[in-house]
Amino acid sequence: MSNVHELGFIKDRIEQLKKDGVYRKLPVLEGPDEAEIILNGKKVINLSSNNYLGFANHPRLKEGAKKMIDKYGVGAGAVRTIVGNMDIHEELEELLAKFKREEAAFLYQSGFNCNAGTIQAITEKGDLIISDELNHASIIDGVRLTKSDKAIYKHADMDSLEAILKEKRGDYKNCLIITDGVFSMDGDIAPLPDIVNLAEKYECMTYVDDAHGSGVLGESGRGTVDHFDLHGRVDFSIGTLSKAIGVIGGYVAGSKTMYEWLNHRARPVLFSTSLMPAAAGAIMESIKMLMESTEYTDRLWDNAKYFKEKLGALGFNTGHSQTPITPVIIGDEAKTMEFSRTLLENGVFVSGIVFPTVPKGTGRVRCMVTAGHTKEQLDRAVEVFKKTGEQMNLL
Ligand SMILES: *Cc1c(COP(=O)(O)O)cnc(C)c1O
Known about the structure:
The protein has 395 residues and is an alpha/beta fold. Helix content is 43%, strand content 16%. It contains 15 helices and 14 strands. The protein has a seven-stranded mixed sheet, with helices on both faces. A four-stranded mixed sheet has the order 1-2-3-12. The protein has a three-stranded antiparallel sheet with strand order 11-14-13. A hairpin with a 5-residue loop joins strand 1 (29-30) and strand 2. It is globular and about 55 Å long. Residues 110-112, 115, 136, 138, 180, 184, 209, 211-212, 240, 242, 250 line the site of pyridoxal-5'-phosphate (PLP). Pyridoxal-5'-phosphate binds at residues 110-112, 115, 136, 138, 180, 184, 209, 211-212, 240, 242, 250.
């Protein structure tokens, strides 16, 4: 009998991961995502989640979700184009549009789906997509699903972007420039005003993925476009509802024209069931809380600044982050994973991030400070970094 079912080629690759020191089991979270969590049976400080505002277990969001379960049940029952388009989905889109100060917002089941669906819907053969080299995996996959040509510019490098525009723009019909608003691995902000100026000079559309900017940057977390006051000059502004907003889902904010078209052509919405009603209910509370007050975003930035200063003072390399994302760059892949494991043993959970998520030799642990952390918890975390850094001779 053939041994095809043994999947030998995959087993070999798994062995290689083990040899490279990057093989891992998934950590198991028992209970809600909060500043302190029970992970693999042990209580630790959580510096790994994207729950920037502490909304994932907030009573008001939970109430919002429960109300919708009582009224609508748990599943939407169909894709939106058949009978899964509930009034609360449209209500949520209107609220998101208002929050983002745009004409319209189109809802997806996740941020990943949003990139997978939107990019292919708005481009075609004969178009050019120009993308930052550090853009998120879901953008890369979204671009792969198109029939357009692609070009990559050096990270945040406007000379590199303009060189591509000069050389290639004339050969194509439409051109779309795509960037993360906040880069998820380094925490730096895209030079959006410069990108928009270049885009307008060369008649290109602009697309900003604000997964890490939503609920973080701009007035009360309205995002990178609001932060730079570029309303009306970015065509597609993507946000997730899964990170700071605390629930699940994604959307693209922009013009009514965009909305109408995506209603007909966004494949993840056409062929996958719509967002569960409870999620819509919880998200609406989240957005309303942000529209009512800047309390949560203020606390987030205050905590982030506090933590970053303390880590920097210890001598760690925290890179060039401009946002609450705080990388601690170690370099070597295996050493990075060991640092993460030792931090966990000492009571702090910070996931190690290595190739292929970041370039080889730039392994880091990525600290995600949130509005939900107390100063006391942050102080304790800093103590653990100091102890672990000394243990491993990193300081
Ligand atoms: C996390 C992330 C996504 C995916 O968002 P989900 O809502 O979790 O699917 C997309 N783009 C970027 C830049 C991200 O960081």
